[in-house]
Design a protein that fits this description.
Chain lengths: 209, 209, 209, 209
DNA sequence: GATGAATGAGCCTTCATTCAT
DNA sequence: CATGAATGAAGGCTCATTCAT
């Protein structure tokens, strides 16, 4: 049964997606992917150089896009920080973060799940800490500004911010892993941001007084 | 030269803990565990039937304990729910959750890390969703009570509660994976519960009106 | 766009020659040959039954030719030996060997390189020992004649002749593998024959006395 | 059937030796080696890290020894060259080369065969050209000295020396591949050196006049 | 005629597990 | 008790070859 190249390529990527989703990058088996895609393992290598390349094909485009977004938003944040960061700007802060994340989610489709939750052992495995770092840096700027002349953040504040950033990303990862419908995804992420936003405001107040 | 049986058993479990922590259940290597424990891989099998059994030995007791706690708290919650769930009781609600979780953390020691974060591929890999289910059930009760006569929760409310429960557990897992010091652990978990608590209050208000 | 059959055949053989030269028979890759010939690997099998057949096509004609030469020269040598083998004839002996070899080299072109140096794993891999046998037989006749009435060669003489024949072929093979320019090739082979001739003369003298 | 470690190690090396000898480094199959050694392929890896390591174990010691010899003899040659290189020293030259080679052969045993003739694809594959370079350098020194004030060698002389060095090594390789008895090996190598020595003398004379 | 997708056997290697010693 | 040699299945990957199109 001869099939067109693109169809087969898609079939492989589909089977690979499923396998990566179930087993993660390291435990995924090329043989199983092949079987699921209805072919011999050798044939996969006509379409993808190796396991990494196959993972890349699914997840790489999204990663690039993320990189563009991240850089852009960090620069914007930098600019705002330099100008001063008044109440008005601060209130618009979480909308920006929210837009970044929700935008990414909308643009991404199901591959975000692999990137965020199943990439251990691949070259993308640091994505979570990158994302965390990104969010952390935004939060730090916001906090520093809010704190005003009181000076730089103390150790405990930094740890808490780090935790908030990380758990926020964990939460997003969970949502991505459990809801694939684009609308629902957006709603839930917004909700999570709300929750964390609320917690943050409280923390800021506490530290300001 | 002969070592007592229990000492050897401990040595194996110690080495295994470290290996599981670093590599996770699936990627953990029996050979490396044996080497680290100062023996041959074959000897491990005199003390533990297989990899799973070894993981069990480390993580199983905590799992049982968790099960006891969970059941107990659920029953309590049930009782309260039946009696009615007034403001006062509601305000004490998060303290209970908090106590449950922090108590578990204190009672558990480092094996919680394995159970929550390194059990993929083992028979405990569903622990997170179990925990989530537990928290979800508590939240549902609380919400239902708060909503009062307006009747049962709608689909959307249930989904949001599910998400909040799950992401809360994810957050706790992250903390457990990143901070081992018992005090810091407590502080951070309390902080996370604060944040989620704040978000929850807002949500309740929103839905009450 | 359609190419004539013979052109394609040639293109394949050309690409195959290069691949066999670089990688040897066993390590040669049909895929690389196809790519270099500007076609798909499958198409090669319309022109050649398999890898061996392709190697055959390049190297077979030369092998046949060698066989003709060898038989012819052996018969001549036989005839001379029967007639008696005086000094004059003996002095012309190495010229004959030389002419045989250099003739083959000139008549052969680059495929001799494959036949002599890259045929391991193919059905031609015994060519070196065949050639050696041929030269050995010539040398044996010459020696026997030179030794005269002293009778047949002893074990040690036969071994040395065998070795000289073999290393002479090895030398020629090295030259063929390293110099492709026809003139240089001739010069160096003559030079090698000189060297071996010199050694042989000495050996003959030693054994005659 | 339990066997002592060293016995098994030897059995593997023996089987490996045979396999490498028959198929060369690249074509050798670990499975076949294992089968020949009476075990599963996996078990080999208890004794040798991988194919390369196994080849190393057989061939490495000899290679080290060769390196020591080569350096030593090159230094000696250098010293002689500086002092001047009269007839007497020159006549002793080939005795030195001969001693080097024959010494190596005696010290080496059958692994020399693998090193010289079956190492393609391994990290030792350049051994022939190294050896050739070594001999070539000795010959060049000798020639330059013999030529005296006439100055450096011309292109053609250099090519011929290169060829003589290379074909000499080829000859030695052939001998090693075909005779394993230590005495016979010595005799034949001496014989080959004689032959080449004779050819060299003639060449020197030709170029001196 | 030619394509190139597909196969299947083979490669080296790793690893949990078993068992003779 | 403990060893560590051995197994067997699986891993990712390559390649000559076949065959539907």
């Amino acid at each position: 049964m001869q099939v067109l190249k693109e169809e087969v390529r898609s079939a492989i990527m589909l089977a690979a997606y499923e396998e990566f989703r179930q087993s993660g990058y390291l435990e995924a088996s090329m043989r199983r992917i092949a079987t699921a895609a209805g072919m011999t393992s050798g044939n996969i290598y006509r379409y993808f150089r190796n396991k990494e390349d196959l993972f890349d094909a699914i997840v790489g485009p999204l990663y690039s896009e993320y990189n563009r977004y991240a850089q852009e938003y960090l620069q914007t944040a930098e600019a705002i920080a330099t100008d001063g960061w008044d109440v008005e700007k601060r209130t618009s802060f979480f909308e920006r973060v929210q837009n970044t994340l929700v935008g990414l989610l909308m643009a991404s489709g199901p591959s975000l799940l692999l990137l965020l939750c199943r990439s251990e052992g691949s070259k993308y495995e640091s994505i979570r800490s990158e994302l965390t770092g990104f969010v952390e840096s935004l939060l730090t700027k916001s906090f520093t500004a809010a704190k005003g002349p009181a000076g730089p953040l103390d150790e405990r504040e930094r740890i808490e911010i780090g935790m908030l950033a990380a758990t926020m990303i964990e939460s997003v990862a969970w949502i991505v892993a459990n809801y694939h419908d684009s609308d629902m995804l957006g709603t839930l992420v917004e909700r999570v941001i709300d929750v964390f936003g609320c917690g943050l405001e409280k923390q800021m107040e506490a530290h300001r007084s």
